[in-house]
């Protein structure tokens, strides 16, 4: 929903204030928003066009209906009515000798992990096959209620992995392979936390998996299947940037000069930033609130995504997309922010 002009308030909104033990808190505004979703929007993933960043797309799940596709102006491009999809993620892949991208999402009604294929021109189709059981048969009695998911690429080998978690606290890793254009999914291992997780993201270069245990903490695990299963605590509830629950979406900004874990601090309607540097345990360096401007602000964010690639003149340093739970007209949607505004507000590299 459009409100006031952004330019009139940008100087005020870019002024940091302090909250929670001198953690900088800043406000920025959305530069675009997607069309309203009457169902229950949850998680976005940004597909970066290989030759023209301005033609990039936003995939967004609706937990009641399926997968929406939007352009960077927020216009609906496509809708796949594929059921109760939760988290969505994207990675490059080679399919039948062709360079494509794979998007995956957890489908909650049928306890499956579903796959889409994105071509270089932005055309999206169902993978073949489209859906796989989320739980190996031997675990069906104990691993329950599929929830979050993520993808991972190994930069050294090119292997593609899929992660899926469950309300039971289980986290399963699979390998995604293909033969003559047909996808296959092979179970590799199980990790676990004590209570319900959802948001997950992998730092592919560092070999880390970050998991949000919603009411408790963010954990880091080794992401490659032969590197162990030791959990490292990153932050917990309550803490400076998570004074109350939930920990929701997780994403990583991987820029030329810096890398940040970005996490949804849902209870205070903000995104928390953690600088990443190898195996060092990061600490929160800032909180970002999306305030009302030309578009309404962001409240109760579930999922979010960020990319560092330039996406045209509105997004010269990349974009941050956050789910908004209280859009106009009793609807939900996704707000689209310029990472340049985040960097300026928090004086980031």
From TrEMBL:
GO MF term (any one): inositol hexakisphosphate 3-phosphatase activity
Organism ancestry: Bacteria, Pseudomonadati, Pseudomonadota, Alphaproteobacteria, Rhodobacterales
BPP domain boundaries: 18-346
Signal peptide: 1-21
Keywords, alphabetical: Signal
Keyword Transcription regulation tagged: no
InterPro entries referenced in this protein's UniProt entry, alphabetically: 6-blade_b-propeller_TolB-like, B-propeller_Phytase
Protein's recorded name: 3-phytase
């Amino acid at each position: 929903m459009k409100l006031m002009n952004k330019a009139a308030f940008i100087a005020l909104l870019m002024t940091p204030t302090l909250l929670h033990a001198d953690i900088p808190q800043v406000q920025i505004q959305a530069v675009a928003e997607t069309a309203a979703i009457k169902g229950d929007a949850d998680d976005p993933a940004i597909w970066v066009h290989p030759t023209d960043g301005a033609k990039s797309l936003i995939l967004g799940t609706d937990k009641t209906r399926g997968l929406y596709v939007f352009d960077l102006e927020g216009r609906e491009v496509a809708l796949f009515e594929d059921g109760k999809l939760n988290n969505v993620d994207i990675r490059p892949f080679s399919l039948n000798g062709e360079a494509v991208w794979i998007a995956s999402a957890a489908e909650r009604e049928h306890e499956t992990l579903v796959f889409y294929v994105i071509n270089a021109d932005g055309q999206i189709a169902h993978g073949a096959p489209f859906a796989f059981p989320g739980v190996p048969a031997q675990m069906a009695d104990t691993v329950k209620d599929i929830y979050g998911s993520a993808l991972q690429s190994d930069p050294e080998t090119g292997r593609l992995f899929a992660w899926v978690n469950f309300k039971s606290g289980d986290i399963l890793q699979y390998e995604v392979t293909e033969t003559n254009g047909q996808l296959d999914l092979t179970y590799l291992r199980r990790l676990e936390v004590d209570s319900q997780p959802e948001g997950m993201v992998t730092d592919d270069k560092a070999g880390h998996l970050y998991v949000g245990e919603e009411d408790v903490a963010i954990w880091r695990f080794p992401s490659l299947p032969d590197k162990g299963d030791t959990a490292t605590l990153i932050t917990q509830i309550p803490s400076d940037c998570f004074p109350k629950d939930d920990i929701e979406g997780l994403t990583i900004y991987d820029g030329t000069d810096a890398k940040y874990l970005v996490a949804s601090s849902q209870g205070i309607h903000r995104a928390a930033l953690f600088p990443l540097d190898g195996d060092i345990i990061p600490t929160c360096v800032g909180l970002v609130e999306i305030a009302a401007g030309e578009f309404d602000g962001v409240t109760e964010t579930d999922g979010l995504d960020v990319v560092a690639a330039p996406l045209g003149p509105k997004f010269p340093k990349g974009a941050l997309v956050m789910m908004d739970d209280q859009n106009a007209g009793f609807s939900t949607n996704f707000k689209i922010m310029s990472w340049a505004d985040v960097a300026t507000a928090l004086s980031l590299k």
